[in-house]
């Protein structure tokens, strides 16, 4: 998967979690929490959706990497590079 | 072997089931009754649709709201706001002999009413509002403190205090005479800061939406599958035994049956646990009308009333306490075209033991006699709708026990809430009413929390 694929995957997960949110204006560098008001339950969902869809395991101490789109994609790229997008 | 077994196909059990099935857990919801819904079920009688529990969905927040329990439920269960089909209330009232307050889903209305009726309390009320914490910041270390004592730090007028407590207690206090502080904060937000709404067709579409989703995700639902016993060994639940003797094994068990009820299932009921059972039962009378309440000048959505300025919230000494109650007009919401019959629902406090003691013929007679009294009291408050009544149904605390198994017919469960859902068994957790969240949205939140914290985060 390329970085763009990973970003698309995250957007897809976010639109599942918050179907009423407009994600088209989402800024890559700004924290999800500030733009979408995600709470800790929502972050848990991003982690679990990644596990469900791609079997990627994210240990709890790495959750801070999921702060913004930019940091999430940077963090996931080495872990998802060899995966096929579904 | 299941990843999780959930006892009860009410709102909390189904919400927990959806979360677990979504994340590919092998999950089974077991329900003793022949149908889903529990305290929020529905039935058909003489050609008419009735809801068991629904007056209004509390915690209403408008589409696009990102915070609060309703938004959380929608996100966690992956529903869009529109799927719940919620329409707002028209306006509700709190009616006491010496004063009357109106409120809507706009907190400004209540603010203005308090300033109008209790001018000296205006600033005190503001100070109190500012001190009510967010849901995320509930003071769980002071959860059982007296809400009355807390409110008295702000408000001086006893009548205002009684009038505010009346709706909050009716919609969610399991404790007599008072409320737990945490419960008070939850209810205050869900009634006065958020608000009331209802799907046009009542609770039916909501329950069906949840069940359909649960099954689509591969969740297993068994009706007529009462749990007789929770099998445990060395501090761990290993599974359950059904009424027919079948044994099912599971890694986790989540119970929405209630705390005392769950202890009974574990064979751990004793004088101490039994003492924890809730004492507050209710009767509810549904008067079906030949027209809409608005046609005869009844335009309120919900009316909370007390016929004395001192509001009494305890188990009555007789079958029913007529001194206070809730009147709900289910068609008085912002529907394009209401699909339900015009109806007045009257709820009042009742004594489970007194109802249970009645043999069958007397039970029927008592229901009829008390229906007449409840309707008369309601008519005094709303205006006389009785000439338009075409059908009636009424439930008592014994009806609740029969269909939901809740001890003492106590809809709000045990006074002592267990906010973390923990029990004496490591992998058995409570969800629903006795975990501390009541009401429709509350029960959903509770099921979600149990699934997340106890099963998904644990694996
Ligand atoms: C008359 C009335 C009016 C109400 N009005 C409103 C309202 O207007 N707004 C609002 O928000 N809320 C209202 N509520 C409250 C709301 O209905 C409840 O808070 C909510 O439904 C509780 O859901 P639950 O999942 O916790 O419990 P339940 O719905 O009781 O679920 C428990 C389930 O477990 C099953 N069960 C129990 N023991 C066993 C066993 N051993 N084996 C198998 N199954 C078992 C029961 O049959 C039941 O289906 C009302 C309730 C009532 C009764």
Quick structural gist:
The complex is a heterodimer of chains A (86) and B (459). With 86 residues, chain A is mainly alpha-helical.
Fold and architecture overview:
The complex is a heterodimer of chains A (86) and B (459). Chain A has 86 residues and is mainly α. Chain A contains 4 helices and no strands. Chain A has helices at residues 3-17, 32-36, 40-54, 69-80. The mean pLDDT of chain A is 91. Chain B has 459 residues and is an alpha/beta fold. Chain B has helices at residues 11-22, 69-77, 107-117, 122-131, 147-152, 158-170, 181-194, 203-216, 259-265, 271-275, 352-356, 360-382, 397-404, 439-456, and strands at 2-7, 27-30, 42-45, 48-51, 86-88, 92-96, 99-103, 197-199, 220-222, 227-233, 236-242, 247-255, 281-289, 302-306, 324-328, 343-350, 389-395, 428-430. Chain B is globular and about 60 Å long. The interface between A and B is medium-sized, with 15 and 19 residues. Bound molecules: flavin-adenine dinucleotide. Flavin-adenine dinucleotide is lined by residues 7-13, 30-33, 38-40, 52-58, 226-227, 256-257, 261, 265, 284, 404-406, 411, 432-433, 438-440, 443 of chain B.
Largest interface: A-B, 15 and 19 residues
Beta-strand content estimate of chain A: under 5%
Poorly predicted sequence stretches spanning 5 or more consecutive residues of chain B: none
- Using the coordinates above, name the CATH class of the largest domain in chain B: Alpha Beta
Cofactors and ligands: flavin-adenine dinucleotide
The number of helical runs of chain B is 14
Oligomer: heterodimer
Question: What is the CA–CA distance across the termini of chain B?
Answer: 16 Å
């Amino acid at each position: 998967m390329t970085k763009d694929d990973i970003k698309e995957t995250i957007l897809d997960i976010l639109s599942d979690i918050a179907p009423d949110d407009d994600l088209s204006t989402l800024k890559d560098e700004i924290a999800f929490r500030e733009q979408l008001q995600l709470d800790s339950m929502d972050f848990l969902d991003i982690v679990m959706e990644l596990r469900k869809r791609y079997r990627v395991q994210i240990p709890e101490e790495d959750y801070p990497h999921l702060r913004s789109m930019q940091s999430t994609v940077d963090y996931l790229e080495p872990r998802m590079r060899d995966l096929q997008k579904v | 072997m299941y990843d999780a077994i959930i006892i009860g196909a009410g709102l909390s059990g189904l919400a927990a089931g959806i979360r677990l099935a979504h994340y590919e857990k092998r999950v089974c919801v077991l329900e003793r009754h022949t149908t889903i819904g529990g305290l929020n079920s529905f039935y058909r009688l003489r050609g008419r649709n009735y809801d068991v529990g629904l007056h209004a969905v509390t915690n209403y927040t408008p589409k696009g709201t990102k915070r609060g329990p309703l938004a959380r439920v929608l996100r966690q269960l992956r529903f869009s706001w529109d799927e719940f089909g919620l329409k707002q209330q028209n306006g509700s009232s709190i009616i006491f002999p010496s004063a009357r307050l109106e409120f809507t889903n706009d907190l400004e209305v209540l603010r203005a009413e308090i300033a109008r009726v209790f001018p000296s309390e205006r600033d005190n009320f503001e100070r109190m509002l500012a001190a009510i914490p967010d849901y995320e910041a509930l003071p769980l270390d002071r959860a059982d403190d007296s809400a009355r004592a807390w409110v008295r730090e702000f408000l001086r007028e006893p009548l205002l205090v009684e009038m505010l407590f009346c709706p909050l207690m009716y919609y969610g206090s399991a404790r007599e005479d008072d409320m737990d502080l945490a419960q008070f904060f939850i209810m205050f937000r869900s009634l006065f800061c958020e608000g009331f709404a209802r799907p046009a067709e009542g609770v039916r579409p909501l329950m069906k939406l949840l069940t359909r989703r649960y099954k689509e995700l591969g969740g297993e639902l068994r009706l007529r599958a009462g749990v007789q016993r929770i099998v445990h060994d060395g501090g761990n639940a290993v599974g359950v035994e059904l009424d027919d003797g079948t044994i099912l094994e599971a890694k986790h068990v989540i119970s929405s049956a209630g705390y005392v009820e769950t202890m009974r299932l574990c064979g751990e009921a004793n004088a101490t646990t039994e003492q924890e059972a809730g004492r507050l039962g209710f009767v509810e009378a549904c008067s079906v009308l030949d027209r809409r309440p608005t046609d005869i000048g009844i335009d309120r959505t919900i009316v909370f009333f007390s016929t004395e300025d001192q509001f009494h919230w305890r188990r009555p000494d007789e079958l029913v306490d007529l001194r206070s109650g809730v009147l709900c007009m289910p068609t008085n919401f912002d529907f394009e075209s209401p699909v339900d019959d015009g109806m007045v629902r009257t709820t009042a406090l009742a004594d489970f033991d007194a109802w249970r003691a009645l043999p069958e013929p007397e039970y029927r007679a008592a229901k009829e006699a008390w229906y007449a009294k409840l309707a008369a009291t309601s008519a005094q408050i709303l205006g006389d709708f009785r000439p338009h009544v075409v059908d009636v149904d009424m439930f008592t605390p014994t009806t609740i026990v029969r269909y939901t198994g809740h001890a003492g017919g106590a809809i709000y469960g045990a006074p002592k809430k267990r906010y973390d859902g923990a029990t004496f068994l490591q992998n058995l957790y409570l969800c629903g009413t006795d975990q501390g969240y009541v009401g429709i949205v509350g029960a959903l939140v509770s099921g979600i929390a149990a699934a997340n914290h106890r099963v998904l985060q644990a694996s």
